[in-house]
Amino acid sequence: MIVFPSACLSATNLTVLSLKKNRIREISADIGKMSWLKVLLLGRNELSSLPLTLSLCTALKKLDVSSNEIRRIPMWMYRLRKLESLDFSANNLYNVSAVIGQMESLKALNLSANRITEIPLPLVLLPPFFPI
């Protein structure tokens, strides 16, 4: 588990955090204390899930969890109202939650290289400018 140093937890000027390529298996619930984060890059780790407290990072505009071992997109993801870019590529997703269709600020969604066999209707009905 990655435990965030207290210096990071109080560094409100830290808006981009990259922890890519680190063999991380679990993110500490303390990530939720960094509500000012705008970009969180967790690609190429060994994550199988994301902590619920990540939903407290309401300033997030970009979340990259590509190349991990995540099996489902969390239902709380819609709480990230400012999220514009979401990358779940190269994980172990079998399906996609319709909650993604409720994310009004989302402009880019990468679900490539997964095991998805069905796209929920709310995603199929998204406007044509929405890149999937």
Descriptive notes:
This protein is 6% helix and 11% strand. The longest helix is centred in the N-terminal third of the chain and has 4 residues, at 6-9. With 132 residues, the chain is low in regular secondary structure. The protein is built from two helices and five strands, in the order αβββββα. The chain has one domain (6-124): Ribonuclease Inhibitor (Leucine-rich repeat, LRR (right-handed beta-alpha superhelix), Alpha-Beta Horseshoe), CATH 3.80.10.10. A five-stranded parallel β-sheet has the order 1-2-3-4-5, with no helix packed on it.
Major β-sheet, in short? 5 strands, parallel
DSSP summary: helix tally:
2
The N- to C-terminal Cα distance equals 31 Å
Per CATH, the class reads Alpha Beta
CATH topology: Leucine-rich repeat, LRR (right-handed beta-alpha superhelix)
What order do the strands of the largest sheet run in, or round the barrel if closed?
Answer: 1-2-3-4-5
Going by CATH, the homologous superfamily would be Ribonuclease Inhibitor
User: Could you give the count of β-strands?
Assistant: 5
Instruction: Kindly report the average pLDDT value.
Output: 89
